[in-house]
Amino acid sequence: MTRLVMNQDGMAPWRIVRGTLCLLVAVFLLAPLFVVVIISFSSAPFLQFPPPGLSLRWYVQLFSTPAWINALVVSVEMMVPAALLATIMGTAAAYALVRGRIPGARLVMACLMLPIIVPGMITAAALFGIYRGLGLNGTLTGLVIGHTVLNLPYVLATVSSALRVQDSRLEQAASTLGAPPWATFRRITLPLILPAVLSSLLVAMILSFDELIVSLFVSSARVRPVAVQMWSNVMGDFDPTIAAIASVCFLFALLVLVADLALRRGPRLT
Amino acid sequence: MIENVLELAGVAKRYDAVVAVDALDLRLQTGEFLTLLGPSGSGKTTTLMMVAGLQQPDAGTILLNGAPVTRLPPYRRDIGMVFQSYALFPHMTVRRNVAFPLEMRGLPKAEIARLVDEALALVKLPDHGDRLPKQLSGGQQQRVALARAMVYRPALLLMDEPLGALDKKLREQLQLEIKRVHRERGISVLYVTHDQEEALTMSDRIAVFNQGRIEQIGAPEDLYDRPATRFVASFIGDTNLLPGRSLGTSAGLCDVETAGGRLRAAVRAPIAPGVGVVVAVRPERLVVRPEGEGLSGTIVDVIFLGTARKYVVRLADGTECIALRQVSDPPLDLGNASVRVSWDIAHATAFEA
User: What is the ipTM of this complex?
Assistant: First the structure.
């Protein structure tokens, strides 16, 4: 008993060091975010910290500048279909590759994972080259297709690991009980992997909203998502509007993360 | 009604180089409770999986109610299946689980409700319909699985070690329940287990599997009293195996020379003189007396089992054999230095070693 107490005493300094280190890392990572959010409410016309006064003028500016509104609309129009398409295709691919008996399934899986392994520049340049022949550069369709390809690996990874955890005997049981494959998928498999499917849908939306490289190559002055608009804004002369849009992006990501957390906390079905 | 609900002819299955099931022939009569019994890896589960359609045989045909189903997927075979892991759908209530096969068959709602009630009553869980599987005990979950597998009255009920995950008391209770359900519904059952006691308790007939083949198929009494092979003799029940050498066979009886003396035992086929044999005798058939006829030995241990006493007797050649005596019989002492062990010839069987 005494030894145990002594041991705990001996551990205490380490615990303090460890706690301090973790705190420092968290501050280091999060502080810039808060600085950006605070600057977005600044009354000064420059990026200045701490701000001399508070105002909402940069938000007013943001939502009254046609270029930013257009960029937000393009981002949503691109992100929602790209995330949905990637989720549907990724889930279907995961189901086929994990449950089916497909020769070379591992190879197919590896190929589908390529977009997160290959440097973004290469994917972007390749898409740009292909799109030139198809006339897809600078179109919403082009952006949606590109982002679907980029999102697919995340969906595939999330859903296939959910499928691997799921007992395939449940599907066998459904089959012996008279359920054809589609009914088995709809009534048994899908409800059980739904948290993973929705989670990957949300993550795909964040990734898509945030993605710059492919968007930069494929977009045009008229079809320009938020990330590209921010990029060109930062390249030119910029004011706290950029902080306002960054805060909007941050808020969006935060909401999605909370939604995702709520999904994962929901009834765990094993 | 078709006489054989299930018929397997020349069914074979191999995994890479390993033969799992080897040219299997099997018939299951309508209404019969047939158990596939064997050690793990003997092919019994593979056979069941092929009947279910969850595995494809490499050769042979499977007839269900007289119609070939060899290439049909599980959902187009008229079967029900109970898994060792229960395989209840975790996101559905007990009622929804039991209703699932009926919904797949497109029955009207009222009819489904009636059949589900009936099935839950049959497995004695009428008030558990609104619970989720994880809110039930293992035994209750397996009853739900049983109700789900038979609510639509399939031609054949398949059970893959359904009681393997339960403790002994519950297992014995559920054995009797499954037996009762089988009797009341007159359903045909193909049951897989590695537990020979369970097989003896439940089955009309037992097929003993070993290395992908059926060693013997018959009523429990047949297998116990008249094992066809040494494997069956030692796999079902406890058996004393006494090594010896054949002196020749006449009229279905083989004379055997053992270290403890000469004896006679029944044989299925004549064994030539000079061939090494083992003689199998059940412990409860051994008679141990202080003196008289038989092999001589000494009692080295006495174990009290409640209903019986188990005597460990060391024979002259060092072989130990087990004898069971009712507790009501007068006990023999460890001190009885020398005893005689004998048995009725009809209860001894000799096999080539």
Answer: 0.83
